Amino acid sequence: MLFFFLIPLWGPLCLLLPPLQTYARFTGAPLKVHKVTNPWQSPSGTLPALRTGHGEVISVPHKIITHLRKEKYNADYDLSARQGADTLAFMSLLEEKLLPVLIHTFWVDTKNYVEVTRKWYAEAMPFPLNFFLPGRMQRQFMERLQLLCGEHGPENEEELEKELYQEARECLTLLSQRLGSQKFFFGDAPASLDAYVFGYLALLLQAKLPSGKLQAHLRGLHNLCAYCTHILSLYFPWDGAEGPPPRQTPVGPETEEEPYRRRNQVLSVLAGLAAMVGYALLSGIVSIQRTTPARAPGTRSLSMAEEDEEE
Amino acid sequence: MSLVAEAFVSQIAAAEPWPENATLYQQLKGEQILLSDNAASLAVQAFLQMCNLPIKVVCRANAEYMSPSGKVPFIHVGNQVVSELGPIVQFVKAKGHSLSDGLDEVQKAEMKAYMELVNNMLLTAELYLQWCDETTVGEITHARYGSPYPWPLNHILAYQKQWEVKRKMKAIGWGNKTLDQVLEDVDQCCQALSQRLGTQPYFFNKQPTELDALVFGHLYTILTTQLTNDELSEKVKNYSNLLAFCRRIEQHYFEDRGKGSSSIRSS
């Protein structure tokens, strides 16, 4: 059975793509990823969305993993109860400490945003969304970061940044200590925690960021780098080091995007034409003169003749 | 705190020993304090007891506004004010007292991860229940939060706080959760804690750490606070080793020092 997985190209949840995709690779779930550029293309109206073989649609991220587990694609099958508890704890750690900094690195840090993120999104989105959508996403992310990291005023932004990065560095060091010299976090087989950790770390390692303070720290933790390279070579062999994983668009979705793109272009040209013609007519530049056609008296006389006949 | 300020504070902190008149500030216990703040305050009290450091608890209606970070509890030690469990642990460490020195690197990583789990799930669930569940908000929270203030300030402050909390919930993705989903998350969290604790007396075997203090603070408060229904405390009561854990810490660190407050009802 084939799962179709629609991932948003925009919106805060786009950072979920690497972990969920990695989880699918680990478990061997037959997942086809469709990158859509507007939420109306999704069956449930929100993204990400998983459409199962039965036609059911699931939208909540952790329910997606639960569904995969139910369908026997479970990466955590061999874990003990305590390891399961550890998974939950470390995922919370990642979410609290690492995710805000990832958001900051890719969306709030000006240099990175202008040179990497915005450029990539603008290229991937169709006209005319690429003009305003990245800016809107940035504002959404900044707001989210403000809410998450509290109540510091704008003058404390630098301090907030320093604190955030310090906590993230600590988090990475903790992960490195927990991993030690093992191949995966829980022994010899990857689990869902590995999917999440790899998903976030790979984003950080692969992207060519101009200001990569966290990247530098991560590169210093050799066991984490070796861990990422190991997983990349095992589960993503053709991606290699060609840039961040989300950049890889498989051929399928691209051709599917073509008719939409063509249609959007045709529609926008038609809309432009209609606007021009409408303006021309309304302002009197062009006017249509109605000449009474020759047939009109003929028809009138015919109807009169009919009336005569009736009488 | 910025890095420079932190280093500076640690320097000063290290210079002086722990004074006898250290005080902890929280909101008014009987009428004002809410579930989540009570849990945080109890966690800090438990931690300080475990370190054998004397502390006096003082209740003030404006404790939230006095705090440097806006969160309770905060401690006033010498001429310094430190709020929230994380910075307090570091401050106490700078004074030479620490509970987690005996742990190795892997255990320290696990301890931090579990503390995040409690903050991520238990604390957020408490906040959700207090501010996003309409029944609790109407019957308990609004009345308690605004109790020290005259009308109409009590309503305004309560609504303002509720709006703030709801915004935050939306930002972290809890805005659309139902109460049942939140209770399920609490259950998952308690299950993880219970599995990690196992049959040991404390999370890292013989000695308690700040994780034990934090877990105790939250679980004890959940078990002993009267809410509109008992669903939250029932989730915790399902795990007998967690109940025993709370009882053990209460007996050892609170009752023995003569600070018996409402004890856990065993059912």
Automatic annotation (TrEMBL), chain A:
Q: Which residue ranges traverse the bilayer? A: 266-288
Signal peptide positions (record): 1-24
Q: Tell me yes or no: is Amino-acid biosynthesis among this UniProt entry's keywords.
A: no
In terms of Pfam families, this protein maps to:
GST_C_6 (PF17171), Tom37 (PF10568)
Q: Which InterPro entries match?
A: Glutathione-S-Trfase_C_sf, Glutathione_S-Trfase, Metaxin1/3, Metaxin_GST, Mito_Protein_Transport_Metaxin, Sam37/metaxin_N
The UniProt keywords, alphabetically, are: Isopeptide bond, Membrane, Mitochondrion, Mitochondrion outer membrane, Protein transport, Signal, Transmembrane, Transmembrane helix, Transport, Ubl conjugation
Q: Where is the Mitochondrial outer membrane transport complex Sam37/metaxin N-terminal domain?
A: 20-138
Q: Enumerate the subcellular locations listed in this protein's record, separating them with semicolons.
A: Mitochondrion outer membrane
Source organism superkingdom: Eukaryota
Identify the main location: mitochondrion
Instruction: Give the GO terms filed under biological process for this record.
Output: mitochondrion organization; protein transport
What cellular-component terms does GO give this entry?
SAM complex
Q: Is Nucleus given among the entry's keywords?
A: no
Residues in Metaxin glutathione S-transferase domain copies: 168-231
Hey, which family's this protein in?
Belongs to the metaxin family.
Relate the protein's function as given in its record. Answer: Involved in transport of proteins into the mitochondrion. Essential for embryonic development.
Assembly mode: Interacts with MTX2/metaxin-2. Associates with the mitochondrial contact site and cristae organizing system (MICOS) complex, composed of at least MICOS10/MIC10, CHCHD3/MIC19, CHCHD6/MIC25, APOOL/MIC27, IMMT/MIC60, APOO/MIC23/MIC26 and QIL1/MIC13. This complex was also known under the names MINOS or MitOS complex. The MICOS complex associates with mitochondrial outer membrane proteins SAMM50, MTX1 and MTX2 (together described as components of the mitochondrial outer membrane sorting assembly machinery (SAM) complex) and DNAJC11, mitochondrial inner membrane protein TMEM11 and with HSPA9.
| Name of the protein | Metaxin
Automatic annotation (TrEMBL), chain B:
Q: Which domain of life is it from?
A: Eukaryota
Query: Alphabetically, which GO biological process terms does the record hold?
Result: mitochondrion organization; protein transport
Q: Which intervals hold domain Mitochondrial outer membrane transport complex Sam37/metaxin N-terminal?
A: 41-162
Whether Transmembrane helix counts among this entry's keywords is no
* Entry keyword annotation includes Transport: yes
Q: Cellular component per GO?
A: SAM complex
Keywords from the named record: Acetylation, Membrane, Mitochondrion, Mitochondrion outer membrane, Protein transport, Transport
Q: Where in the cell is it found?
A: Mitochondrion outer membrane
Q: Where is the Metaxin glutathione S-transferase domain?
A: 187-249
Q: Subunit details for this protein?
A: Interacts with MTX1/metaxin-1. Associates with the mitochondrial contact site and cristae organizing system (MICOS) complex, composed of at least MICOS10/MIC10, CHCHD3/MIC19, CHCHD6/MIC25, APOOL/MIC27, IMMT/MIC60, APOO/MIC23/MIC26 and QIL1/MIC13. This complex was also known under the names MINOS or MitOS complex. The MICOS complex associates with mitochondrial outer membrane proteins SAMM50, MTX1 and MTX2 (together described as components of the mitochondrial outer membrane sorting assembly machinery (SAM) complex) and DNAJC11, mitochondrial inner membrane protein TMEM11 and with HSPA9.
Q: What does this protein do?
A: Involved in transport of proteins into the mitochondrion.
Would you identify the family this protein belongs to, as annotated?
Answer: Belongs to the metaxin family.
Q: State what protein this is by name.
A: Metaxin-2
Q: Which organism is it from?
A: Ailuropoda melanoleuca
